Structure formats: structure tokens, C-alpha cells
């Protein structure tokens, strides 16, 4: 059971909000205004906003730089190129100094007004507070269907339960953040890794809004990449695929041989298909191993703007 946070050093609690951005120049000013209004209601907290520009090609970094000149509580981190949403989230988590950290996208599909409810649950002792989507306005039927199927397939194949219908919009305790940023693995899938930690987790439900401006950056290619990362890092089931395919092929061959007199062509084509699929699954895992052994960083920071604070030790707890 979660424990209410009581131990502290007398200072205000600090809340960090990480906002990964990719070509969001149209909406960033609105995001900042709306987010700031919400954070102003949290009188017991020192709040900071960390905008991570994931290699945008529009004026996103110019907007972030302008915003930092107006507010001391806002910082910007520019990555040298587009490393992907998960890497941008990880970069923000490493920069965050809060006792609690919220990750939220810049497009305002996830309502910042939910943050006080998440903070209240964190104060009750929950280490992870996820935002669970009841509905997804403004998204195509295809995207809703694939998301529904994907989360349930991932949950069925994963070695630990994963919160259904949740994205990266969530609140994380400092202890959770410390664990995440210390992991040495590449291709980190934050949603699955948070569940893997096994720390107390709860959720709040909400209806997702359509984008305020622009279009979704998650095209089919990026969706498939996220799905690949989630399946490979959260489950070893694909590695067992060759054994399952081999057994299925043998059983199928025996049935065909019992019914027909010339099963060779069918068995040959089935065997080739099974081999290709099995080699493909193994190849995906070898790709992950290759990235891990190569040891390159998840991202490269090109520039930072705004005030930089010291990250508190995990043991420091704040009286609330």
C-alpha cells in the first residue's frame, strides 16, 4: 500500500513538468499559458516547466527560447536532431529536479487541468499516477482500433502487467525517475519500464481532446516503431516464436500428409514462411542487442536555456 509522504527538510515541494515537443510552434504559446494557470493553483509547490525540442524543423526552439525569457520557472533543452518521443521524454526526466515529475505532450490533447488530481494522489503516497483515456476525440477509427488492440496484446505478452489505455501522460515520484534515468539499456520503453519497476501505481481517467493545432506527429511508421520497442523490451515471447512455428509446421505437415498424397509443396512453402518469420523475430532482438553493445547515448543535447537547478537526492522527502 502507498504511504503518505511526510519526511522533509522544510522547503517547498518541487514539481517538474516535462513537455516533449516536435514541430509544435503553432501551439506552444497556448500550452504554456494553460499549463501555467494550472501550476499557479499549486500553492504548496515550486513548479518548473521543461520543454524538450526533439529536433524540430519549424520555429519550436525559437518559441521555447522566447518563453524562457519571460519566466524563470521555464527551461528549454534542444536535442541535436530528432531522436524520437521516448528519447525526448527521457531527456526531460534527466533534466527534471522535482520531487514529482509530470510528463505531458505539448499538443494539449492531454488536459493539464488533470495535474492537481494527479498531485493529490501522489501526496497520498502513490509513486506513479497514470492518466487513462476513456475516449480519444479527433482520432481516426484506425488509430483507436490499433491502439486498443496493441495495449491488450502488449499486456498479454509482457512479463508484467501494463496499465491499459495509457500513454506517457503521468506523474512519477522522484524515486521512480531516479530508477528510470539510471537504467543502462537502450530503446527504453518508458510505459512498460514504469510498470516493470513495480512501485505503487494508480490512475485517473479522462477524455482525450483533439489537437489544438497542427497534425499528429505519430504517423504509421512512428506507431509501428513504438509498438516494436514495447514488444521487444517488455516481452520475450517473440523469441519463443521459432519453437511455436516449428511445432505448428510439424503438426500441419502430419495432418496434410494424412489427407493428401503429395504434401511436399505445401510443407516446403510452409517451412520457408516459418523460417523467414522466425529469423525476422530473432533479427529484431539482435538489433536491440547491437544498439546496446554499441553503447551510443539515447540522444545528444545541442543547447540549453533557462535556469538550471540541482537534482535532489532520492532520500530527500518534503513535508506536505
Provide an overview of this structure.
It is a single chain. With 320 residues, the protein is an alpha/beta fold. It folds into two domains: 13-233 and 298-305, Spore Coat Polysaccharide Biosynthesis Protein SpsA, Chain A (Alpha-Beta Complex), CATH 3.90.550.10; 236-294. The chain is built from ten helices and eight strands. The protein has an eight-stranded mixed beta sheet with strand order 7-5-6-4-1-2-3-8, sandwiched between helices. The longest helix has 31 residues, at 264-294. It is elongated and about 80 Å long. The protein starts with 12 loop residues before the first strand and ends in a 15-residue tail after the last strand. Residues 6-10 have low confidence and may be disordered.
* Major sheet: arrangement of strands: 7-5-6-4-1-2-3-8
Largest pleated sheet: 8 strands, mixed
Net shape: elongated
Q: Return the CATH architecture of the largest domain.
A: Alpha-Beta Complex
Structural class by helix and strand composition? alpha/beta
CATH H-level name of the largest domain... which superfamily? Spore Coat Polysaccharide Biosynthesis Protein SpsA, Chain A
Order of helical and strand elements:
EHEHEHEHEHEHHEHHHE
What is the CATH topology descriptor of the largest domain?
Answer: Spore Coat Polysaccharide Biosynthesis Protein SpsA, Chain A
The number of distinct helices, counting runs of at least 4 residues, comes to: 10
Strand content: 15-25%
Oligomer: single chain
Q: What level of helicity do the residues show?
A: 40-55%
Number of strands: 8
Mean pLDDT: 78
Number of domains: 2
What would you report as the Rg, rounded to the nearest angstrom? 23 Å
Unreliable stretches: 6-10
Terminal CA distance reads 19 Å
Classified by CATH, the class of the largest domain is: Alpha Beta
Amino acid at each position: 500500500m502507498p504511504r503518505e509522504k511526510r519526511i522533509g527538510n522544510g522547503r517547498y515541494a518541487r514539481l517538474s513538468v516535462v513537455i516533449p515537443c516536435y514541430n509544435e510552434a503553432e501551439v506552444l504559446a497556448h500550452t504554456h499559458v494553460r499549463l501555467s494557470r494550472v501550476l499557479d493553483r499549486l500553492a504548496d509547490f515550486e513548479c518548473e516547466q521543461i520543454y524538450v525540442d526533439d529536433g524540430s524543423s519549424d520555429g519550436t526552439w525559437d518559441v521555447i527560447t522566447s518563453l524562457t525569457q519571460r519566466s524563470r520557472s521555464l527551461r528549454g533543452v534542444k536535442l541535436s536532431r530528432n531522436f524520437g518521443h521516448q528519447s525526448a521524454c527521457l531527456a526531460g526526466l534527466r533534466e527534471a529536479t522535482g520531487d514529482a515529475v509530470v510528463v505531458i505532450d505539448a499538443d494539449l490533447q492531454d488536459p493539464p487541468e488533470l495535474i492537481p488530481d494527479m498531485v493529490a494522489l501522489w501526496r497520498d503516497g502513490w509513486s506513479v499516477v497514470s492518466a487513462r483515456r476513456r475516449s480519444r476525440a479527433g482520432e481516426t477509427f484506425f488509430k483507436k482500433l490499433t491502439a486498443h488492440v496493441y495495449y491488450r496484446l502488449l499486456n498479454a505478452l509482457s512479463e508484467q502487467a501494463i496499465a491499459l489505455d495509457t500513454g506517457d501522460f503521468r506523474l512519477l515520484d522522484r524515486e521512480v525517475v531516479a530508477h528510470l534515468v539510471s537504467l543502462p539499456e537502450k530503446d527504453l520503453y518508458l510505459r512498460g519500464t514504469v510498470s516493470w519497476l513495480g512501485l505503487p501505481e494508480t490512475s485517473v481517467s479522462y477524455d482525450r481532446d483533439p489537437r489544438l493545432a497542427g497534425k499528429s506527429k505519430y504517423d504509421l511508421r512512428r506507431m509501428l516503431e513504438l509498438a516494436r520497442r514495447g514488444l521487444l523490451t517488455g516481452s520475450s515471447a517473440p523469441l519463443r516464436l521459432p519453437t511455436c512455428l516449428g511445432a505448428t509446421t510439424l503438426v500441419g505437415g502430419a495432418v496434410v500428409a494424412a489427407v493428401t498424397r503429395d504434401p511436399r509443396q505445401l510443407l516446403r512453402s510452409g517451412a520457408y514462411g516459418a523460417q523467414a518469420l522466425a529469423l525476422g523475430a530473432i533479427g529484431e532482438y539482435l538489433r536491440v542487442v547491437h544498439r546496446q553493445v554499441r553503447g551510443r547515448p539515447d540522444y545528444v543535447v545541442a543547447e540549453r536555456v533557462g535556469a538550471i537547478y540541482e537534482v535532489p537526492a532520492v532520500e530527500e522527502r518534503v513535508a506536505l
